[in-house]
Backbone:
């Protein structure tokens, strides 16, 4: 496997945990890798060659991440509309590529194709992240997943590692009843739990005192959906684990992971050139905006200035812990999950959920906006007190506006998304309604969070 100089540098940095690179080294590597991937995409990927030619761009115009503003942003819809032949690098054999599908939370899943080398580099990035959380080589890890996957043939090296007491991983599926999952956890006694935060929080709430006496993981690592404060509290209370979060996607890979010292998110600057844009311009620290990323190792199917359709708050240029990574302050969710009201005002669901958090009789809840003038609240509450329902109704109506109907629905359970994720809020209103620039609108209407906000 022939590696470029930039890739060799990256592998050395991944394998030397005691000697992190300097910020200058990270920036130098990022720029070098960006030049390589842009030149490769122009030469071998028809989609990007046409994009560059259409806008009078050549690869030598993109020397550093700051130059990326010359390149138009690519949306998910544009990628979905293109054929695989336009998106996959010429000369790649599709039969030899690994295919991964997005979760489909946007309504239409997208197939991502990667080569084995870039897949390995992604695995190495995730291993570094787990090491930073405090995961140890001999830890027993238990993942909680929505559906079963066909087991891959065990790699010979994995069999050797397991025989030596390493790589002890087990996956449990949510298709099984919670009591069976908790029984399996009691038997396995995990050191580390991994999964969707909502799934782990649900199991933590259902755990009996007997379960809690045995299931005592040191760490709970969450990903794939926004971790709410309620979910963190439930996991910690139920299992006694310290919760860490990471943020990424199939398109962009690992984007950022939570710093165990500061609570900020370290951006994987050696794997992605991350932009947080407000009204098309880079945000300042503390400002929220849309995630746009360029993946630095996706040679089989490049992603250059790809709009992830998520909202985050930009953090400092490097973390206060002393590591060289730039930071994200908070991960706030998908852009379309902000509610657009008839007047044009945006409402953040986290503002709506505050009154519900004060009521101890609500087990779960979800906000759904199916029209601009209607918001539904689904609640799992076995014995809702009438006065409590009235308090919630009054508080939520005050947070909306006249003419917006509020409907409270008492349900026995709240279904997960098709990909197994839980979304505390979902807007079914077309995010492109009236041509609204959601990143700009959201950033303009919601103030900068205070220090330490989570």
Residues:
């Amino acid at each position: 496997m022939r590696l470029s100089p930039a890739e060799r540098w990256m592998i050395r940095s991944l394998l030397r945990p005691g000697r992190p690179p300097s910020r200058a080294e990270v920036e130098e590597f990022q720029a070098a890798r960006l030049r390589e991937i842009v030149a490769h995409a122009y030469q071998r990927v028809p989609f990007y060659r046409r994009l560059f030619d259409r806008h009078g761009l050549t690869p030598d115009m993109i020397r550093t991440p700051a130059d990326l503003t010359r390149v138009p942003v690519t949306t998910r819809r544009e990628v979905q509309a293109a054929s695989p032949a336009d998106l996959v690098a010429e000369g790649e054999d599709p039969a030899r590529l690994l295919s991964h599908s997005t979760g489909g939370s946007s309504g239409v899943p997208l197939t991502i194709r990667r080569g084995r080398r870039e897949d390995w580099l992604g695995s190495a990035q995730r291993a570094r992240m787990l090491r930073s959380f405090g995961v140890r080589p001999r830890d027993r890890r238990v993942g909680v997943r929505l559906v079963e996957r066909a087991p891959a043939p065990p790699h010979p090296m994995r069999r050797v590692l397991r025989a030596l007491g390493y790589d002890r991983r087990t996956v449990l599926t949510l298709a099984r009843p919670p009591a069976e999952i908790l029984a399996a956890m009691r038997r396995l006694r995990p050191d580390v739990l991994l999964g969707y935060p909502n799934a782990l929080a649900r199991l933590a709430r259902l755990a009996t005192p007997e379960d809690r006496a045995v299931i005592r993981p040191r760490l709970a690592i969450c990903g794939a959906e926004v971790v709410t404060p309620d979910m963190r509290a439930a996991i910690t209370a139920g299992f006694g684990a310290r919760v860490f979060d990471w943020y990424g996607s199939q398109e962009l890979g690992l984007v950022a992971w939570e710093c165990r010292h500061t609570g900020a998110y370290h951006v994987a600057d050696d794997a992605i050139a991350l932009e947080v844009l407000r009204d098309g311009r880079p945000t300042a620290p503390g400002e929220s905006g849309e995630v746009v990323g360029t993946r630095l190792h996706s040679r089989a199917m490049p992603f250059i200035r790809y709009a992830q359709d998520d909202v985050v708050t930009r953090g400092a240029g490097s973390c206060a812990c002393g590591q060289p990574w730039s930071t994200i302050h908070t991960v706030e969710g998908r852009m379309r999950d902000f509610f657009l009201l008839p007047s044009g005002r945006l409402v953040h669901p986290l503002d709506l959920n505050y009154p519900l958090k004060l009521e101890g009789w609500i087990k779960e809840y979800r906000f759904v906006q199916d029209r601009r003038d209607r918001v539904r609240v689904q609640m799992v509450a076995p014995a809702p007190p009438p006065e409590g329902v009235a308090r919630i109704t009054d508080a939520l109506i005050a947070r909306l506006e006249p003419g917006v109907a509020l409907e409270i629905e008492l349900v026995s359970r709240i279904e997960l998304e098709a990909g197994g994720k839980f979304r505390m809020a979902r807007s079914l209103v077309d995010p492109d309604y009236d041509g609204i620039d959601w990143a700009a609108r959201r950033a303009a209407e919601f103030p900068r969070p205070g220090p330490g906000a989570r």
About this structure: Residues 27 and 64 are 9 Å apart (CA to CA).
